[in-house]
Design brief:
heterodimer; A: six-stranded mixed beta sheet; four-stranded antiparallel beta sheet; 10 helices; B: mainly alpha; 73% helix
């Protein structure tokens, strides 16, 4: 469904990705784990066209989307819940969700809104509240809900667990699982919280300094001693 | 008291005109963080286009003032909007990712280009328009001074109120307005969600130019004379109004416009008409010194 081939990218003269290849198949949850500064967010943003890839390709359903203008991607079925959530702070929760539906089919709007509000009842309670006044966890739900409003074929999630309490993290991950199982949503999840992410994912990749160093099923990677040493025990995932 | 009331009416009329121009500054600033110094020229072009439209409608033998006004209003809005669109397309869009100073210089250049364009095509002399609206009503009859509200002043205020209402509705209730607000808050996120942000920016310039063109039409009717240079001073004053109200804030622009209009009217009425511009710009200095975010502006801090 989503294929990244030999992607190079960076900011100015600083190169952040050195030939990354990743594949996400239809209906899968694939996770990319890595430490701070490994290039995880850069990979997701390069898929979306900012920064532009200097080499390599991004394919969505076989179509080359590497050089497309950013706003076209949402209309092709790629939704992104980005790093830092990027909620429209001075717009209401409802308006944020409406913005998510820009690339969607207007006929599905009511149904999709209903679906998102059922998934995240908390958003329903706060529907007229301004986005900037929500708590971190609520903002994360809003960011994911907003991404779902366009009925994407592929959902990109950038560190949905960042800065959230463990209980909230668990809830968010359960929701991701539910979206995947019930709606067959294809998910590409970027995480520092390796333990949760690998438990959830069908397959995973490990990114180190802009290169993929390891890949395997979620269970394989969880059991891998190198991963345990670097990312789980005493690492960022250890709190879980 | 009568004198005060008369200055109040004059000031509100003037303020409505400044407010309409100020909205263009504040909207463009909100969305691309740039002061569009060519905006005053857009207003000047609006004044010229409306003058031509009035003359054409008189030539065609139009006798109904209302019909002539409507025709002039529509053609002025449409043609000036085209100018606004073109300015953004030609002078700013190619510099979207350039350092911030580049579009600012480009804006000043565009302002000079438009001034010279209208000087060359329309001539440098002052252009008069015979008064179309005559009469008014006497609100109060004093012993030495009576308060008049002319039909033209009423039209200007009523038109401004209607435009403000339509405009507010577009910004707060339509999907275009929602996309504009989203683009203003986070352009990249809006693009990620599928908003064609270039088109939204174009729409913003078109809306700003449309409102400025109506201001130009009003000034043509109100003062009866225009020239190619009127955009400069009016532009700077409207910019002052936008800063006074809080740049980026739409109600602020309208409020700032009204205040600048009132300050100017009262200053000319009670002190000296020669120094009315000094009064307006002293306000700009004071605001920048003591309240740089303006009356209704918000400081650039946000919860993360």
């Amino acid at each position: 469904m989503l294929a990244v081939e030999n992607l190079h990218s960076g900011y100015g003269r600083i190169q952040a990705l050195h030939g990354v290849s990743v594949e996400v198949k239809k209906g899968e949850i694939v996770t990319l784990i890595g430490a701070n500064g490994a290039g995880k967010t850069t990979l997701l943003m390069t898929i979306c066209g900012s920064p532009r890839a200097t080499k390599g390709r991004v394919l969505l359903d076989g179509q080359d989307i590497t050089q497309l203008p950013m706003h076209k991607l949402a209309h092709l079925g790629l939704a992104h819940s980005p790093e830092g959530r990027r909620i429209f702070a001075r717009m209401s929760v409802l308006e944020n969700l409406q913005m998510g539906a820009v690339a969607g089919n207007p006929d599905h709007y009511d149904e999709d809104l209903d679906k998102v509000l059922t998934l995240f009842p908390r958003l329903k309670e706060r529907i007229n509240q301004r986005g900037g006044t929500l708590s971190g966890g609520e903002q994360q739900m809003l960011a994911i809900g907003r991404a779902l409003m366009s009925r994407p074929r592929v959902l990109l999630l950038d560190e949905p667990s960042l800065g959230l309490a463990p209980l909230v993290v668990r809830h968010i991950f359960e929701m991701i699982k539910q979206i995947n199982q019930e709606q067959g949503m294809t998910v590409f999840l970027v995480e520092q919280n390796a333990h949760h992410a690998l438990k959830l994912a069908h397959r995973g990749y490990v990114l180190v300094n802009g290169r993929v160093t390891l890949t395997g099923t979620g269970a394989e990677l969880l059991a891998n001693p190198e991963i345990r040493a670097h990312y789980l025990e005493g690492g960022h995932g250890a709190t879980a | 008291m009568e004198y005060f009331l008369q200055q109040l009416i004059n000031g509100l009329t003037l303020g409505a005109i400044y407010g309409l121009i100020a909205i263009g500054y504040t909207m463009v600033y909100g969305i691309i963080r740039m002061i569009n110094f060519a905006h005053g020229e857009i207003y000047m072009l609006g004044a010229f286009i409306s003058l031509i439209a009035f003359l054409v409608s008189t030539l065609l033998g139009g006798t109904s003032v209302a019909l002539g006004l409507l025709a002039a209003l529509v053609s002025t809005m449409v043609l000036t909007a085209l100018y606004g669109w073109a300015v953004e397309r030609v002078a700013y869009r190619p510099l979207r990712n350039a350092p911030k100073l580049a579009p600012l210089i480009s804006a000043i250049g565009m302002s000079i280009v438009l001034q010279n364009f209208s000087q060359l095509t329309q001539g440098a002399r002052v252009k008069p328009l015979p008064p179309l609206f005559k009469g008014g009503i006497e609100l109060m009859h004093g012993e030495t001074f009576s308060v008049n509200l002319s039909y033209l002043q009423m039209t200007i205020m009523a038109l401004t109120v209607v435009l403000m209402m339509v405009f507010t509705w577009v910004i707060t209730r339509t999907s275009l307005g929602r996309a504009q607000r989203a683009t203003e808050q986070d352009m990249k996120m809006a693009a990620l969600l599928g908003v064609n942000t270039d088109r939204i920016i174009s729409a913003t310039f078109v809306m700003g130019a449309t409102l400025a063109s109506v201001a130009g039409l009003m000034v043509t009717l109100y003062y009866g004379v225009i020239d190619f240079y009127i955009g400069f001073l009016a532009g700077i004053k409207a910019f002052t109004a936008a800063v006074l109200g809080g740049i980026g804030s739409l109600p602020g622009a309208m409020l700032g416009g009204l205040l600048i209009g009132l300050i100017e009217a009262f200053w000319s009425g009670y002190f000296s008409i020669e120094y009315k511009d000094v009064a307006a710009f002293s306000i700009l200095v004071l605001v920048l010194l003591f309240r740089p975010t303006g009356l209704l502006g918000r400081p650039e801090v946000e919860k993360i």
